[in-house]
Design goal:
- With about 80 residues, the protein is mostly beta strands.
- It is built from no helices and 6 strands.
- The relative contact order is 0.28.
- About 10% of the residues have low confidence.
Length: about 80
């Protein structure tokens, strides 16, 4: 998993009906875009995380696009 500052991490709920939540990468603390990441959640809370398997990275358009011009999405 690799992320850049400004990318959004989308966390899916672990149970049916659980709300999805998002966090913006404020700082990449690992080497070459690897975790851990300093993130800011929608409510302003900041923390350091190592994203798990229920996390999808939505790459900021300025960082990378696919051949179709859509933001690259990486699932871990």
């Amino acid at each position: 998993m690799k992320a850049h500052e400004g990318d959004v991490l989308r966390f899916t709920g672990r149970t049916v009906g659980a709300a999805e939540h998002h966090a913006t990468v404020v700082k990449v603390l690992g080497e070459n875009g690897e975790p851990p990441y300093r993130v800011r959640y929608e409510d302003g809370h900041e923390t350091e995380i190592f994203p798990g398997p229920g996390c999808v990275i939505e790459t900021h358009p300025a960082h990378e696009t696919t051949a179709f011009g859509q933001p690259h999405r990486e699932r871990q």
